[in-house]
């Protein structure tokens, strides 16, 4: 009975890690695709390092590496790989908890920082001839149906066509009144429950993965034999 349970844990761990390895590959490929197809990877127009594409690439790479360690460690019943998989999952979980605490404690400061970044981005491209930033802002304003950071006045009279409510803005220009920053906040608040559920599901999967890996590790350490 015990051997059957251990075999189940082994193959369950292999299966789950293989599925997550495939998911990590899809996320990585999506990130590379967004990076190679110009503007859609940008989240903050003047902060390329914070782009969605870079985030997807980093996330996909981490998921693939961790899943590979767990899958190979279970398949080969290798104690070193299993304990490495356990430690990495533990570190990731601690980082997630720390980031959640920091976000709760410094919520207002982070909110102010992001607002300043958006304002700086808009100012940068309203006082230059750069087209890249303007295109990024056009995408944001068109998708979120907003205008500027806080409203159309942020554009200092040169309001782009992306702020228009109508598809043809030649006559009687009617602009979106709400700023993009407020729209972004509303979007995050609206999806707060979904994000929370996603984080809880990921945490449960991490705990199960750690439990399975440690169970297999302890069995191999005590018995010194495999259970093919």
Walk me through what this model shows:
The chain has 228 residues and is an all-alpha fold. The protein has seven helices and no strands. The longest helix has 35 residues, at 2-36. Residues 39-43 and 45-50 have low confidence and may be disordered.
Label the structural class.
Answer: mainly alpha
Strand proportion, as a percent range, falls in: under 5%
Ranges where pLDDT stays below 50 over 5 or more residues in a row are: 39-43, 45-50
Oligomer: single chain
Task: Give a brief description.
The chain is an all-alpha fold.
What key attributes describe this structure?
228 residues; elongated; 71% helix; mainly alpha; 7 helices; single chain
Furnish the topology, listing elements before pairings:
Blueprint: H1 2-36, H2 52-76, H3 79-105, H4 107-126, H5 132-144, H6 180-190, H7 192-223
Helix pairs in contact: 1-2, 1-7, 2-3, 3-7
